[in-house]
């Protein structure tokens, strides 16, 4: 951090300041997309295929159009040549891109794919009219399992994707073959990272209003990436970007699912101009399950070459990633770049051989979900470390200690990976803190005694890391990313000294209005109430890339920090003129400029007024206090940590009870510790959900069996334990704030820790691994089968 921050009288960074947003939101004054109303607005409903794979022979819209109040119906024939396909934004290597029309063009490839769009005067009428659209389908063979899709006899989904194989991605470092030769044994395990449904509290919603007089579209959408959404909409519609205004209002959660470009977006926007009416659409919860992107959906075959001493020499992974029926925005990058790059985790594993097969199936498209590949990578290496510990009969914590990257090795370059380094950390300190806080040794003693009483307690301790804060625009095209890595910040000081920050980042509950104001207020030494934060409006914010990959603080926050520094530098120059002092002799603290040695002071507000009056400014000082910054970090940061869990498993029911949960995380400098704890709590809760409850399941016909919240298991509040979260701070050298990013960390660390604890509890039955989710029926069956085999 700069000298100005060290000497600051006002200190905001590092303080647990309450969220400024909460009074408005908790008081019911939030405004979400579905709250927007425009005169003459009509409502959309979509006709979705009930089949996972079928040819569309004919669509009869006459009955729907005859219903009073129906404005119109669109099918592919109505938009052909007027609306472009939905295209991915991240295409890795030579991955094949199948055509994805917004409305099915003769064939549907997953249950829930839209074949028609109905517009009517009310939402209820639109839903009724959609049921009157008659579609003649001819069913085709279906494949939902990614491994089965690669078999020669599997049905083929796309003419340009031979064998349903979108592409193959490889990462190699060192020589795994040599590692095997030097090893005492090879330990193997098969892992499933099940399909998940992000399910934010607010489903997807859209509101489009096209003004024919200005030839401008106002498009309200809860997007994590407003400026990217504008670009994609412009490209799909062929409309100029400057005639599209994206407004992202309050957002009820995103978790990655709201950073993609969906067919409904381009269709609602097109319909507003086509029918000369504002158009609104809010998906139902069942539509959210069917048609909003899913997450994870990997199968991995993993093996490790190890010495009997516990040293892991190399790791080999063969992964099959189910991408669904079409390529969503970042689909090819999540299981490849975002997973394969991190399979060595926190450990000194010098040889790696990873192959990822990208597969298309008759299922909902799969894309980024909180953590986006890094939870899968952590799960791979941590479950493998537990398997190695079991095979060698070494305590799993001790095994980790023998392999951890050490504090004096940073920045650490894993297995000669040219694309990234772990920036800073002390993995040993996090592990030691977590095991001490959970009382690991004490629980091991109690565990043995409890087993004699027929009580099955398990302890899981796992480490994790991830690379976040996507930046480095020059690097992104090398991995197939079609966007930059910078983030924008524009700070305008008004003539009364009040400040507005316009940020290209986008919150979905993150608390940016608080944390960003903390950064700017500390640099400018002003009360936080003097700083407003504006986000989510492409007419007010110059440019941006948005919020994902835990980049809001390391990239967006750093942009605000640098812009504030530029404001302060100019203000100091103006103050020097007003004080008739040399600029280098002007000191600033607590909102006042003074010349060295004392004397008169000028307040920041006086300097701001002079900046706009300009009566005493020389000609080479441009009036105003207004600075724009496009900031990129020097590299990505590597948040890391250690999570420790104690569970009890009821052998008669399979029920899992979490007795204690400890997380020690290193996310760099904490801007607002209260928000950091909250982020960890939320991420851990989602990770527990994956470990114990959640799974999107299809039957052989491609029907989603978990199509509603009645069938998809979220953890209830009583199933989420009281977590003890703490932080070990090692500042990141990649950005001026020293932050690393925290939004995804809990979701990365929790699943392997919880699974490790449950499997540890089940060891007396000879059970060493079960695939997520570890539901009571699954555990009970495993215990029953193990008991029968033993008998």
Automatic annotation (TrEMBL):
UniProt keyword annotations, A-Z: Molybdenum, Oxidoreductase
Signal sequence range: none
Entry's Gene Ontology molecular function annotations: iron ion binding; oxidoreductase activity
Domain Aldehyde oxidase/xanthine dehydrogenase a/b hammerhead: 27-141
Coiled coil (UniProt feature): none
Tagged with keyword Cytoplasm: no
Gene3D superfamilies, A to Z: Aldehyde oxidase/xanthine dehydrogenase, a/b hammerhead, Aldehyde oxidase/xanthine dehydrogenase, molybdopterin binding domain
SMART domains in the cross-refs: Ald_Xan_dh_C
Domain of life where this protein originates: Bacteria
InterPro entries recorded: Ald_Oxase/Xan_DH_a/b (IPR000674), Ald_Oxase/Xan_DH_a/b_sf (IPR036856), Ald_Oxase/xanthine_DH-like (IPR016208), AldOxase/xan_DH_MoCoBD1 (IPR008274), AldOxase/xan_DH_MoCoBD2 (IPR046867), AldOxase/xan_DH_Mopterin-bd_sf (IPR037165)
PANTHER family reported for this sequence: ALDEHYDE OXIDASE 1-RELATED, XANTHINE DEHYDROGENASE
Protein name according to UniProt: Quinoline 2-oxidoreductase, large subunit
Organism per entry: Cupriavidus basilensis OR16
